[in-house]
Design goal:
CATH architecture: 2-Layer Sandwich
Number of strands: 3
Largest sheet: 3 strands, mixed
Mean pLDDT: 86
CATH topology: GMP Synthetase, Chain A, domain 3
Helix content: 40-55%
CATH class: Alpha Beta
Structural class: alpha+beta
Number of helices: 4
Distance between the termini: 52 Å
Number of domains: 1
Shape: elongated
Order of helices and strands: HEEHHEH
Length: 133
């Protein structure tokens, strides 16, 4: 979504939507979530009529950070998108905007890419330590 004109307003709306939807998922969402959902970023069009909400997931009750399988991620994305009208109504109630953006939820794959790079660097570091010993 291309941003034109005064991007400060768009950025402010993106941050407000992220905060409102994040709190809603914690305290008011109608479905129980089997994973922890974190909103990584919100991208809204310049006319504020459409938006994308990117999320990441972590397993609940894990003692360390584990990776959630693709099926759970897809189920979470499908469930969030099936309740998108409920989320939009909450945004409309909380934020006084002329138009409530039509939103969609997307899994943020950039976190997975960072995790893979970190894992590769860790393996290289461990291999270098073994080679030096």
């Amino acid at each position: 979504m291309k941003k034109v004109g005064d991007g400060r307003r768009v950025q402010k709306v993106e941050k407000e939507i992220q905060a409102v939807v994040g709190m809603y998922l914690i305290s008011g969402f109608s479905e129980p979530l089997d994973v922890f959902v974190t909103l990584s970023r919100v991208v809204v069009s310049a006319d504020l009529k459409s938006g994308k909400i990117y999320f990441t997931v972590l397993p609940k009750g894990a003692s360390r950070v584990d990776v959630v399988d693709e099926d759970a991620i897809q189920e979470t994305e499908d469930m969030l998108n099936s309740h998108v009208s409920e989320v939009q109504q909450h945004i409309a109630k909380e934020l006084k905007l002329r138009f409530t953006p039509k939103i969609r939820f997307f899994h943020d794959k950039s976190v997975d890419k960072v995790r893979k790079v970190d894992q590769i660097l860790s393996e290289i570091s461990n291999q270098n330590k073994r080679d030096n010993d």
